[in-house]
């Protein structure tokens, strides 16, 4: 098949990592795969195409990257399948001529919550595009709010990158890991509040933060790791026995799954996307949506009960590494694209 993805950029991010992984794996299965990526200026697009510029953080990338100044529907290449990967690219796909291929929409978050003007974003979910979503929560939103059916294709963890790292966890500290982000909906404030409440009875815990950039203000992290390379993330996840996810809403929540694959026990809000892997009392401890007091209780329980923590960590790791697999997911995507 000839397959075209309209990708928003090539920077490391959870959603873009998934897009590029699918593109690379489909190309590895013999398909002719092109990613069309917008550049800010014509010169940048020309230079990127001349140099064959692809994702430098993904060595050996097998799909073709084509830099463009805009997703012009009339200039999309002939293909068998055309895939929008964010709300900004959905209009170009729906307006594309038939020769551009069967039209799909890979939905990785309910973007009208936080990414763009809600009425404009919501219109894209009602467009006549075949929906592929990365969680059951998103499938239910597409059906209940927009009357659209969707295929669920949970994004797997890359087990070659994310696995327990021997010797990473030391006995000199009890570390709780949390992602830091400037977006309010990532719940950093709620996470800090929950940790502070638990520290009153368990002063031994240390809060470890990580993120693309360090916080703009002084925050009570005991350790912070900015912009870690991919091959060091598994070490950090493995270093911390508990991963805390205070996000309000997630399309799926890859950092939580990555931490689980590395042997961390997950404490999380019910943020929607987590429902596909975080089963309360089995693979995680789950607090109701944005209930900070309940999140603190879950965290304290995980800190205080070593047997519970070890059981949930083991069951969580087994679940995310066995239930979701990149080989199976790529084959399923191939089947979906070929069926239209």
- Which outline best applies? globular
Query: What is the radius of gyration computed over CA atoms, rounded to a whole number of angstroms?
Result: 21 Å
Please work out how many helical segments DSSP would assign.
11
Terminus-to-terminus distance:
12 Å
CATH class of the largest domain: Alpha Beta
Report the count of strand segments: 13
What's the short story on this structure?
With 340 residues, the chain is of the alpha/beta class. It is built from 11 helices and 13 strands.
Detailed description of the structure:
With 340 residues, the protein is of the alpha/beta class. 37% of the residues lie in helices and 19% in strands. The chain has eleven helices and 13 strands. The strands form two sheets. Strands 3-2-1-4-5-6-7 form a seven-stranded parallel beta sheet, sandwiched between helices. Helix 4 (118-125) links the parallel strand 5 (102-107) and strand 6 (130-133).
List keywords for this structure.
six-stranded parallel beta sheet, 2 domains, globular, Rossmann fold, 19% strand, alpha/beta, 340 residues, seven-stranded parallel beta sheet
SSE layout and pairing:
Blueprint lengths: L1 E5 L7 H15 L3 E7 L3 H10 L12 E5 L12 E4 L2 H9 L6 E6 L10 H8 L4 E4 L2 H11 L3 E3 L21 E6 L8 H12 L5 E7 L11 E4 L3 H10 L2 E4 L8 H8 L3 E5 L14 E4 L4 H13 L1 H18 L2 H13 L2
Parallel strand pairs: 1-2, 1-4, 2-3, 4-5, 5-6, 6-7, 8-9, 8-11, 9-10, 11-12, 12-13
Helix pairs in contact: 6-9, 8-10
């Amino acid at each position: 098949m000839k397959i075209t993805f309209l990708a928003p950029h090539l920077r490391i991010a959870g959603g873009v990592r998934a897009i590029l992984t699918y593109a690379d794996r489909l190309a590895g299965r013999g398909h002719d795969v092109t990613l069309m990526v917008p550049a800010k200026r014509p010169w940048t697009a020309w230079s990127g195409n001349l140099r064959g510029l692809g994702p430098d953080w993904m060595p050996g990338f097998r799909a073709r990257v084509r830099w463009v100044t805009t997703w012009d529907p009339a200039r999309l290449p002939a293909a068998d399948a055309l895939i929008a990967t964010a709300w900004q690219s959905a209009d170009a796909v729906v307006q594309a001529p038939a020769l551009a291929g069967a039209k799909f929409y890979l939905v990785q978050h309910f973007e009208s919550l936080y990414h763009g003007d809600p009425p404009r974003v919501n219109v894209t979910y009602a467009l006549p595009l075949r929906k592929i979503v990365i969680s059951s929560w998103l499938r239910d939103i597409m059906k209940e709010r927009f009357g659209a059916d969707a295929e669920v294709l949970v994004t797997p963890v890359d087990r070659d990158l994310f696995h327990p790292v021997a010797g990473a966890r030391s006995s000199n500290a009890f570390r709780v890991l949390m992602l830091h982000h400037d977006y309010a909906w990532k719940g950093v404030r709620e996470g800090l509040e929950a940790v502070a409440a638990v520290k009153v009875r368990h002063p031994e815990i240390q809060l470890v933060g990580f993120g693309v950039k360090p916080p703009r203000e002084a925050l009570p992290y005991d350790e912070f790791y900015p912009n870690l390379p991919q091959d060091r993330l598994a070490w950090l996840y493995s270093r911390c026995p508990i991963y805390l996810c205070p996000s309000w809403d997630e399309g799926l929540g890859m950092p939580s799954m990555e931490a689980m694959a590395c042997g961390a026990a997950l404490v999380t809000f019910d943020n929607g996307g987590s429902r596909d892997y975080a089963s309360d009392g089995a693979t995680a401890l789950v607090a109701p949506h944005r209930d900070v007091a309940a999140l603190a209780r879950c965290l304290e329980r995980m800190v205080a009960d070593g047997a519970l923590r070890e059981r949930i960590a083991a069951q969580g790791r087994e679940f995310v590494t066995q239930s979701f697999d990149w080989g199976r997911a790529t084959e399923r995507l191939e089947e979906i694209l070929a069926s239209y």
